[in-house]
Amino acid sequence: MMMIMEMGICMWVxxxxxxxxxxxxxxxxxxxxxxxxxxxxLGMKQYSLPPGDLGWPFIGNMWSFLKxxxxxxxxxxxxxxxxxxxxxxIYKAYMFxxxxxxxxxxxxxxxxxxxxxxxxxxxxxxxxxxxxKKSFIGISTEEHxxxxxxxxxxxxxxxxxxxxxxFIESIVKSSLEKWATMGKIEFLTQVRKLTFKIIVHIFLxxxxxxxxxxxxxxxxxxxxxxxxxxxxxxGFAFHKAFKARKNLVAIFQSVVTERRKQRxxxxxxxxxxxxxxxxxxxxxxxxxxxDEEIIDVMIMYLNAGHESSGHLMMWTTLILQKHPEYFQKAxxxxxxxxxxxxxxxxxLTLQEIRQMQFLSKxxxxxxxxxxxxxxxxxxxxxxxxxxxxxxxxxxxxxVWYRAVxxxxxxxxxxxxxxxxxFDIARKAGEFLPFGAGTRLCPGNDLAKLEITVFTHHFLxxxxxxxxxPKCPMMYLPHPRPTDKCLARVHxxxxxxx
Length: 497
Prior knowledge:
Helices cover 53% and strands 10% of the residues. The chain is an alpha+beta fold.
């Protein structure tokens, strides 16, 4: 009997030891799977890769990224690399389904963003599928230059945008008046609706009212999936976003078809808008844009053209409200502009916009402080050497804007809001709210103009009462309070006209 018991115990010990060995081997295999897949074939070059690790198969380093960005300390993701591997400014990782290199310094960022010979766009497949294969993020550098040249004239530079200044100011004033009578509102939701109206008006003109509500609903779903994992299963953000993409394509196709019909039959008597320009434009070889190109360009422009400016409007207003000294200084600048205005003048002019020097610094500091987009994506066309490290051909390169904007060696005390940081011109690569190089966001001037006009009128006439000042933050897809800045807008008794 005793012998049987001893044999049973020995068997269980053997089974447990076997399971332990199997688990250890399995862990070793899983831990090194990405190395076998992506590094082992590099030969000696693997020893020149940046420090870091590629994490687990398929998942890579995404769990630690998502975990950090779901806390109040999104910087902890990069900080973990610094603490483990030192402040090298460049690290290897497995992100968004690809072996990647993360760049965190101004010098490295400038190199990657401006070197078109060695770096192409490298957005994740999921993002390209949602925004469009024929949009700026899905086409080659050569095609991008052509398409940008054909499409950006109407929204690039303050001079062209001055044509929209009267409309922007009008809708800003009417929106603020309305919000002041509504009581409790989601301030972010309202400013996003405002910026959406502006960008849709620029593209679709008088036709925009009929499709505004349906477009806005689909874009909200689209944005939630742009940086989500590509899981096309009901219940996941990407699946909802992909359905929204299909609905947007259907809406825009009907609009483009009708517009082509009007142009062909010469029925259009309204002022020419951006869609007309896209339908009519042709390159030096007489080639016009296809429906697919026009639709993808519109999806991209309308998305980028209201998301960033809407969020940054909210943050500029909110931050100024929390810093009375900057609020008063910015307000005094706006009041001085009104004092110098001729009595016969109605509304803002481009010259007055250029005189708002302190407000411009406030907006720039807001863009640094908040960092609307945490990173951008490139792909190495060939093996590239940065700071003595090799970025292999085909690897993704993530330019980590948040790391640059929150680097205490670049911006001392980066968690403190200080517009005087922009009393001096920043060095190349230090300030990247809209990227850099030939892929610089084409809507950057429109975004800053919208924020400037909005803040001008807010400073002169309104106050914001945030109802949950200690509301938790969320950082994906963009930084914002979880309650979308629940607030009341109050019109001041001494409001300027």
